[in-house]
Structure formats: C-alpha cells, structure tokens
C-alpha cells in the first residue's frame, strides 16, 4: 500500500520558517522524482519545487527561489521542504507528489503565514 504522509505544517508569522516532511512507503522511493505542490483557497494547485531521484537536480517556482529548499533522504524514504522568509502569500495546503511509472499524492498539510 502506497503512503505519502506530510507533516510540519502550521501557523507561522511572516518572515518565519517551517520545515515540511513527507514520509513515504509502498514504492521504490529512490527511483521516483519527488515534488512539492501547493494550493491556496480559490487557486489551482501549483508546483513549488522538484528534486530528481538522486537528489542531484532541483528546480523551484520563481515565487520561492532563494527562500525554499527541497531535499531528500533516500535512506529514510523522505523528502523535505525547508521554507524560510515566509510570506502571507505562501499560505496554502502543501502536497507531496511522487512521479515515476505511476504518480502518487499525499493528503496535504496546511501552512498559514499570518501575524
């Protein structure tokens, strides 16, 4: 059974930081491209960051470049998203995605940036 479980979301003040984690099981994590998406109320889901299977290549949405860092630990089957200098417009539900021969999604974790 495939599982992707996000954690680490919450309420943070503008300028603050959060670290999201996505623990996985049920598929060969080390050969899957992993991504973080987000969806704000009333908006479409958007790609935030993506990391290659080996972790050697990363890409980011322009809106988060220089503030967010995606990483992965293939030994722990986990992908992370370090989010710094958070802004109110980063408020969204953040989803973990695995893409390979199939695609899998987590259930999402809420991130709220507000004073």
Question: Would you write up a description of this structure?
Answer:
With 115 residues, the chain is mainly beta. 0% of the residues lie in helices and 52% in strands. It is built from no helices and eleven strands. It has strands at 3-7, 10-12, 18-25, 33-39, 46-51, 58-60, 68-73, 78-83, 92-99, 103-105, 109-113. Strands 2, 4, 5, 6, 9, 10 and 11 form a seven-stranded mixed beta sheet that branches. Strands 1-3-8-7 form a four-stranded antiparallel beta sheet, with no helix packed on it. The radius of gyration is 13 Å and the shape is globular. The model has no long low-confidence stretch (mean pLDDT 97).
For this entry, what is the oligomeric state of its chains?
single chain
Distance between the termini: 40 Å
Q: What composes the largest sheet?
A: 7 strands, mixed
Q: What is the count of helical runs?
A: 0
The ordered H/E elements are: EEEEEEEEEEE
Radius of gyration: 13 Å
The pLDDT mean sits at 97
Number of strand elements = 11
Low-pLDDT parts are: none
Helical content, roughly?
Answer: under 10%
Tell me the overall shape. Answer: globular
Into which percentage range does the β-strand content fall?
over 45%
Q: Return the structural class.
A: mainly beta
